[in-house]
Each structure stands twice: as C-alpha cells, then as structure tokens.
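Quick one:
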Amino acid sequence: MDLTRHLRHFLVVAEELHFGRAAEVLGIAQPPLSQSIQRLERELGAELFDRSRRQIELTMAGRLLVGEAGRFLAGEERLRTTMRQAADGELGTLRVGVPPEMPAVTLHALLGHVGEETPGLHLELHELTTPEQLRGLASARLDAGLVHHPVEVPGLRSGPVVEIPLGVVLPRTSPLVLARPETRRPRGRLWEIALADLAGHDLVVFPRETSPAWYDRMLDVCRAGGFSPVRLKHARNPEFLLGLVLAGQGVAFEQEAIARREPRLVWRPLAGNPLVRGIRVVWPERSAHPAAARFATLATEVLTRDAAGTPQVAPRTSPSPTPRPWSVIYTP
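Output:
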C-alpha cells in the first residue's frame, strides 16, 4: 500500500469536503479517488468521512488524522531531503588526512571554505604523513587525503596536482642573507639564492618515510643544481625543523608561510624555481564517500590560492554562535 499517496488524497478531500472537487484538484477521476480513501479506511480500521449527509463531513478519526497525516508527510519530506543531501555529500562526516606541515593560514582557509560551501558536512581532520594517509585509505579509516605528489597507488582517484614553490629558509644572520642587503633588492622582489650557493651547508629535511618519492626527487634536484648537503638532519615536525635552522644546524626548503612562523628566520626564493612540491587530494575509487570529490574541488581552490600567494579570505562569521562543522584529530 502506498500510504503516502493515500494520505495526500485524504488531505485534499478533507480540505474540499467534496470528492468531485478533490478529484479535480488532484487531476484524477473521482472513482479512483473514492477507492483510494476506502483503501485507507480499511488499512487504518476507521471511517474517516461521514457520508450519511448530502455533504460529507470528517469523523472524529478523520479530524485526528488531518494533523497526524500532515506531520507524517512533512517528516517523510524531511527524510527524503536528508537522504538526498547525504547522497550528494552535503551531510555526514568526512575523515580527511592532512600533512603535518600544512600552514595554519592554509588550514584555517580550508576549514572555512568547506564550512561555507557545505555547512552540513562534518570535516574530521587527521594529521598524518603521506604513507600514513595511504594506509588509512586502504583500511577505510580515512575517506580522503591531502598527499604529496608524486604518488601512484592503484585504486585511488585524485584531484589536480597543486604545485607549491619552495624557497630556502635561513637564519637572519646567515652570510647568504647579509651578502645581499635588502635595501639593494629590486623593488617588490626578494633576492634569489641559487642551489649552488648552499654548497657546504647541512640540510634539514623531513624523514624519507614521510614521502619517499618527493624526498628522493628533492635530493636529486639539489645535486643537479650543485648542492650536495654535507649532512642530512631529519625533522618530522615543522617547528623542530625551524628550530634546527635557527640554531645554525643547516638550511631547509619550505614554503614561505611556514618560514614566517619564526621572525628570526628569513625565506628566500630559489633561482629558477627548481623545487616545486606537489600536493593533491586522493580518495578511494570504490565505495567513495559522496563528499570526497566535492572536498577535492574545494581543497584545490584553497591550495591554488595559497600557492599563488593570494591572500586567503577569512570565512564569514555568523552573528550568533553556531557549532562549526569540523573537528581536528591529532595523532600521538
């Protein structure tokens, strides 16, 4: 029995109190409408209309059903709307891995952009390296991940690669900085430093297991450019990396937003822009979360603005305090 259809017929008849006019409103013939009401009465076990007079009237059961039917149909519509939004990726929880070095300004812009575009989506962020994210995706503990490029894993779909230029991070007292007085730099530009200028320095870099393909590629580019680090010093945490550079333990390659965390360090672009770190969103090809592709689009927009140096737009704030649709999970 199509209860929803019969209840809609009932409400129109209850409004018109006339089967002929109700049939015209519904755009159906009167006999099928009468049969529909009779079917509903048999199903509910109660007469809904008093047909003993020239004009039909609602019985007590009929008057009670008017309110109940309205609530039932409204609830069904809410249910259908909720399911449609969930299927479109506008509701639910999306578990996303993000790299540990993601700058705070980029993370803030990402959360704000997703919150504005899909306010019903709960974004659950996990701070994980690329290999950790890939394992999480394989075991279905993550729905999507922001991973370093290149990485080729079967069974994953991916969004566009966003290229982020890297520069060199140095102490302000470094001879490479002092030898190029800022008062003499071209207007609006920073002095560039060639890879060969870094010869004789140690390199502070993330551990290879964090992103093996990018790690090997970066060292190959350094050697090809005339910089073979005397020693490699590994730092998993960006703050530890900056601390080692500040202490004179080596130089590091990072994006400008990360170097800004420590005012006693400076960031300089590399001549020829030889080091470009790629990042992209990946998600499972099969049984994908309905919001994964939408998140990839939104994240790519934010990362592209960040890579271009475009100031991130802060999310609009609501005048009334409302819960934000995300949470951040920090791994031990």
